[in-house]
Amino acid sequence: MLLTLWGKAHSWVSQQLVPDPPPTAPPGKLTEATNTILGWMKWGGLVGAVGALIAAGIMMAVGRRNRNNMAIEGAVSIPWVVAGLAVILGSASVVGFLLQ
């Protein structure tokens, strides 16, 4: 029964009752402004990631003697910063992949 319902739903959805036009940029200078804002956001994210890596290094260096928790927190934060960099740098590719 479930497979029958799934088959009917799939055939109904595959008829594309709602049009799906490709994304197009609006006319005028809005495209340039959007690209500028996205570029600024990407630049800010990269600057923030560099600052976070520097802060993690400082925490590890200062926490080396008698402050083990600070050194551990600095070391644990590095994978999070790298993951954030991966999201920042790969965001356009991920969105493009998901929309195709």
UniProtKB/TrEMBL annotation:
<feature type="transmembrane region" description="Helical">
    <location>
        <begin position="43"/>
        <end position="63"/>
    </location>
</feature>
<keyword id="KW-1133">Transmembrane helix</keyword>
<feature type="transmembrane region" description="Helical">
    <location>
        <begin position="75"/>
        <end position="99"/>
    </location>
</feature>
<keyword id="KW-0812">Transmembrane</keyword>
<keyword id="KW-0472">Membrane</keyword>
<protein>
    <recommendedName>
        <fullName>TrbC/VIRB2 family protein</fullName>
    </recommendedName>
</protein>
